[in-house]
Specification:
This protein is of the alpha+beta class. It contains eight helices and 18 strands. The strands form seven sheets. Strands 1-4-18-13 form a four-stranded antiparallel sheet. Strand 5 and strand 6 form a beta hairpin.
Length: 486
C-alpha cells in the first residue's frame, strides 16, 4: 500500500521555506534604503482553491451546548463560550459512491503490487524505482500505467486474486478481508511539545532549573504490520526519544464497510435486503455510507489527503490535510450563522405545510412519517445557513473528539478539542468518540445541534456516517463556496 504524503509534504515545505528565506534575504538587503528593515516580499501569495463539494465555514464564536435543559435530554449538557477558526466542510455526508472510490483504489493498488510481483509475472513497469534523472527512489506504484485490458494468464491470476466466489450463489465478489489500507501520519502536536525537544536544554526555559543532559524522554508511537498469517497486528510502542521520526505513526486498517451492521444493530428484524444491497447496489450510490467505524473514517481522510496531494503542484505544501471535525467545529457548523438550536431557523421540525426539515423518527415506531424508512439520499433537504446538508438526522456523524461527560468544560475556549489515541491494550471505555447530529432512527430531541452522543471507535453502525473537514490554509474574512461540477 502506498504511504500517505503528510510527512513528506511537511519536509518539502520546510525545505522550500529555508530556500525561500535564503533567496529572499539577499533581495531584502539589496533593496533596503539607509539600512532600514523593510520586510521580505516579492513572493506570490498562495490562494487556496475551493475544494470540490466543500463549503467554507468562517471563523467565529459559539455558546456551545444548551443553557435551558429539559426533561427530554435526561442529563445536563456542558455549556461554554468558545471560538473556532475557519474550515472547509463537506456539504454532505460522505456517500457510498465516494467511499467506493476509496475501496476501489485500495483494490487496484493491491492488483498493481501483485502484477509487479514475480509470483504473478513480475512486470516491474508497475513500480517506479527511479526518478527522471535515473536516481533511485523508494519504490512506489506507477498509477499512470493502466491495468491490462486483455490480461495474460499471470495478469489474470493477479487480478482475480482480490476476488472470492460466493459459495451459495457462485457470484464473484471482492474479498473484503484483503481491503487493507496502510498509511502514516506525523504527529506534529506531540513533536512540538517542549518536553519532546531533541536538545535537552530546550525542554525547560526556567533558568533556575538545572537541565540533565542525560535525561531520557519516553515517547509512544503507533505501529502496525501484517503477520505471516495475513492478520493485521497493531501495537503502541513505548521507547526513548531518538529523533524526529519517532513521531511518525503507522496504521493498517481494513476499510471495507461492515454490511452486517444492518442485522447486528436490529435483532429480530428482516433487514437482509440492506445487508446485501445498501453498499453494493448502485441505486444507493448517493446515500450516506454506513457501517464505517471511526478508525475507517480516519483512514478515508488520510487517503483523501494523499490522493489530493498527488494531484497538486508545489503549492501542495500549503494545503491542510482532510480530517474528521472536532466536536466544537461540528456544532458550530451545524448551528449556522445564527447559532440556532436546529440547523434551520425555527424551533419546529417541520414547515407550516407539514414538510419535515430532516430525516429522523418523528413518531414512536413511525419511521416513514417524514417520507423515509431508513437513510435518504444526501442533500434532499434544504441546507443550513452555512450551506451544509443533513446536519440533523439521516446519519449521525463521527467527530475526532473523545467522549467525556465533562465535554467542552474540559477543553480550551480556543479551537476546543480533546484527543486521545487509545492503544489496543487501553480499557475499552477510553475508546469512546463523540458522535453528533442524530440519525434516521432517532427522535426529535436527538437531532438538535447540541445533542451529544458517543460510540466506540472500532464499532460500525447502520446509523453512523461521517463527513470531512479541512483547515483553511489562508486567513480570510470573505465567505466562499466550493464549486460543484454538474
Amino acid at each position: 500500500m502506498m504511504r500517505t504524503s503528510n510527512i513528506f509534504a511537511a519536509i518539502l515545505s520546510l525545505a522550500a521555506l529555508t530556500l525561500a528565506s535564503c533567496m529572499s534575504a539577499g533581495s531584502a538587503s539589496s533593496s533596503g534604503r539607509g539600512g532600514e528593515v523593510i520586510g521580505v516580499g516579492g513572493s506570490r501569495s498562495f490562494k487556496e482553491p475551493a475544494p470540490y463539494g466543500m463549503t467554507m465555514v468562517k471563523r467565529g464564536f459559539l455558546k456551545m451546548g444548551i443553557d435551558q435543559q429539559d426533561s427530554l435530554w435526561g442529563k445536563q449538557t456542558p455549556v461554554k463560550e468558545i471560538s473556532v477558526d475557519g474550515f472547509w466542510m463537506d456539504e454532505t455526508e460522505v456517500t457510498n459512491s465516494k467511499y467506493k472510490q476509496f475501496v476501489f483504489w485500495v483494490r487496484d493498488s493491491i492488483i498493481r503490487e501483485r502484477l509487479a510481483d514475480p509470483a504473478y509475472g513480475g512486470d516491474d513497469s508497475y513500480m517506479i524505482t527511479e526518478d527522471k534523472n535515473g536516481d533511485p527512489v523508494t519504490p512506489h506504484l506507477d498509477w499512470k500505467k493502466s491495468l491490462p485490458r486483455k490480461p495474460n494468464e499471470d495478469e489474470l491470476r493477479a487480478i482475480e486474486s482480490v476476488y472470492v466466489t460466493n459459495p451459495v450463489t457462485g457470484e464473484k465478489m471482492l474479498d473484503a478481508n484483503q481491503m487493507n489500507y496502510r498509511y502514516e501520519v506525523y504527529d506534529y502536536t506531540t513533536a512540538a511539545l517542549r518536553r519532546n525537544r531533541l536538545n535537552p536544554e530546550e525542554r525547560n526555559l526556567n533558568t533556575d532549573y538545572v537541565v540533565d543532559p542525560n535525561e531520557v524522554v519516553m515517547i509512544s508511537k503507533d505501529t502496525a504490520y501484517i503477520d505471516d498469517e495475513g492478520r493485521i497486528v497493531r501495537e503502541t510502542i513505548n521507547r526513548p526519544l531518538s529523533g524526529p521520526w519517532d513521531f511518525l505513526n503507522t496504521y493498517i486498517i481494513n476499510i471495507y464497510p461492515d454490511t452486517t451492521c444492518w442485522v447486528n444493530d436490529f435483532r429480530n428484524s428482516e433487514n437482509e435486503i440492506y445487508l446485501r444491497n445498501y453498499f453494493s447496489n448502485p441505486a444507493f450510490n448517493d446515500y450516506p455510507v454506513v457501517g464505517v467505524s471511526w478508525e475507517q473514517a480516519n483512514a478515508f481522510c488520510a487517503w483523501r489527503t494523499d490522493y489530493l496531494l498527488k494531484g497538486l503542484g508545489p503549492e501542495a505544501r500549503y494545503v491542510q490535510r482532510y480530517r474528521l471535525p472536532t466536536e466544537a467545529e461540528w456544532e458550530y457548523a451545524a448551528r449556522g450563522k445564527d447559532g440556532s438550536e436546529f440547523p434551520w431557523e425555527n424551533e419546529s421540525v417541520k414547515s407550516g405545510d407539514g414538510c419535515f426539515f430532516a430525516n429522523f423518527k418523528p413518531d414512536k415506531g413511525n419511521y416513514i412519517k417524514d417520507g423515509n424508512l431508513i437513510t435518504s439520499k444526501v442533500g434532499i433537504y434544504s441546507a443550513n445557513s452555512n450551506g451544509l446538508f443533513d446536519m440533523a438526522g439521516n446519519v449521525a456523524e463521527w467527530t475526532s473528539t473523545i467522549y467525556t461527560e465533562a465535554g467542552v468544560d474540559a477543553m480550551n475556549d480556543l479551537n476546543p478539542q480533546l484527543e486521545y489515541k487509545a492503544a489496543k491494550e487501553d480499557p475499552y471505555r477510553l475508546k469512546k468518540k463523540s458522535v453528533r447530529g442524530g440519525s434516521w432512527k432517532d427522535p426529535e430531541s436527538y437531532i438538535r445541534s447540541a445533542w451529544r452522543s458517543w460510540e466506540y471507535q472500532n464499532q460500525p453502525r447502520s446509523y453512523i456516517g461521517f463527513r470531512c473537514v479541512r483547515s483553511i490554509a489562508t486567513s480570510t474574512s470573505i465567505r466562499q463556496k466550493a464549486s460543484k461540477k454538474k
